[in-house]
Amino acid sequence: MSTAVMLRLRILLLVAGTISASTGDVQDNYPKYLAAIQNVSGLIAEEDIAAAYVSALRTPLDTLYRATANSQWDFSTNITDYNQNMSEKVENEETKKRREIGLTAKRFAFKTFENVTLVRMFRRLNDIGLGVLKDEEAAEATKLGGEMDKIYSSTEVEVGGKNVSLEPELTQIMANVRDYDQLLAAWQRWHEDVGRPIRPLYQRFIAIVNKSAVLNGYENLKYSWVENYETENITEIVDALWEEVSPLYKKLHALVRKKLKEMYPGKIPADGTIPAHLLGNMWAQSWGNIYNNVSQGSILDVTPEMKKQNWDVKRMFTTSEDFFKSLGLDPMTEIFWNKSMVTKPSDRKVVCHASAWDFATPHDFRIKMCTDVNMEDLFTVHHEMGHIVYFMQYFDQHPLFREGANEGFHEAIGDLMSLSVSTPSHLKMLGLLKNDSIDAVDFQLLTALEKVAFLPFGYLLDKWRWALFTGETPMDQMNRKFWEYRIKYQGVSPPVKRSEKDFDPGAKYHVPANVPYLRYFVSFIIQFQFHEHLCKESGELDSGKKLHECDIYGKEKAGQILRKGLSLGSSKVWQDVFEIMAGTRQMSASSIKKYFEPLEKWLDDQVQGETIGWDNAKVEDYMESGSECTHR
């Protein structure tokens, strides 16, 4: 028997022992298996050995993910120095383990494999993140991330003589107050008290993680991020999608600007931009909170009715669960109800940013959210629970494939449900809408202020970061470039002059948390494609209903399609899963444009005589003189 065959048998026997060791200590067998692999000279080209290796990784990866999720949860739901230190310690251990796993994976000649699934798995294993760095640098990046998270989550700012936090006080001010100066104070304090201290930390953090991307084989961090889409021309695809939807956005922008001019005489710049603090949201990313000031007719807001009927947070969550159950999908688990954090505690600081969590343990899925009883949070609950349903559906996949088919899928699923939940007919079914006179335009206007208004922000944030990662934007001009993009794509300007002392993108959670943002832009496009396909397949459009009137509640055919697509996780390329869920393999803006056809016709009438766009706006007009630092 040849040495090569003996080696293969030895390895496969070791792996088989590892896989079948459910009654013993798997971790005792795994190091032996690693040792066997590491003793092989040269690259291993045998696919059966490679398949056995990734199978053996199930338990170690689950153990790794579980420990990380628990430590991050402990810190996010109780911000203390101790929990921060413990979280950093666990993350450092994870980095070392990922390095061990990744370096072992590099012993395989996976690029020669015929099994496409194996190739995809090994590509993922070969990117070991911070594990490619020396321990000291990796630990520094982890510590910097924790410090930025702590600043963002625990900062209180002084507004009106009171110290207030982002959630709920500042968020409520931006949503409900209409006084120009009070909004300005809230906006300025948050952006400066959070952004400025984060700036030097972020600069060092990006230098380290960009280096790790290069050492992992990417040109820079941009290409590490877009690798998730497994599509070489994804940036060109996204650019084309933006070009398709930007005319609709500009018409909506013109209407809102027209209304704000009436509300704030002399306060709206002549260049056509809108000051960022007047749009009902700290980042001007969604404008639904100014709906009452823009709507022409009856107002669609069920918040007063929710409070009148004594809705509480638990009812909001059970209502969301009922929607998913009506599709034939699984209910939330007992652990979900027992361990989720769904209201803001009064006895400790927490990260209020709503998020869904997968603990790599059967039935352990949770939501962290500082929920308020209002219509916006009712829709957010559906969004976050959509993540949980996705986790549950693909739980049986290999850990390497327990994620959305691409990053946009996960974000799209919860919002997909909100497209049905937010229809007047569904709100009426819930007993929350008594007014029968809500017409299509009023309903669509509210939806557009959330969905269409978001698109340029979702598009530009990563475009801005990519320019940092590639070196196109020098670090000493990053705030200027941020506002250049916000003016160019969003038509939104800072309400006071900015400088390079400021770091306004750092006042947005996803920047210090280093969470890619393109997923949200993609999700806002594809959720309408999913919606149209599910509506067609479930017969909702057969009776002449328009797309914006469709409600898939109770449509088990829609649930069957969702279950089939979601259960695949990322085990197939996203186009394969997309075909199941959208009936096509191409992302397109056709569905979102079809959805908003009635609104666009109405907007055409409303903005006659208005300037569409802001072509003459220049970032230089909003930067303090001398803030454009020269560099060698």
TrEMBL record:
Cofactor: Zn(2+)
PROSITE patterns: PEPTIDASE_M2
Pfam families, per the entry: Peptidase_M2
Annotated Zn(2+) 1 binding sites: 383, 387, 411
EC numbers on record: 3.4.-.-
Keywords of this entry: Carboxypeptidase, Disulfide bond, Glycoprotein, Hydrolase, Metal-binding, Metalloprotease, Protease, Signal, Zinc
Amino-acid positions noted as binding Zn(2+) 2 in the UniProt annotation, renumbered to this chain: 383, 387, 411
Signal peptide per UniProt: 1-21
Record: active site: 384 (proton acceptor 2), 384 (proton acceptor 1), 510 (proton donor 2), 510 (proton donor 1)
GO molecular function: carboxypeptidase activity; metal ion binding; metallopeptidase activity; peptidyl-dipeptidase activity
Glycosylated sites: 78, 115, 338
Cited InterPro entries: Peptidase_M2 (IPR001548)
Disulfide bond sites: 352-370, 535-550
GO biological process: proteolysis
Chain positions recorded as chloride binding sites: 229, 519
Binding note for cofactor: Binds 1 zinc ion per subunit.
Similarity section: Belongs to the peptidase M2 family.
Protein name: Angiotensin-converting enzyme
Species assigned in the record: Ornithodoros erraticus (European soft tick)
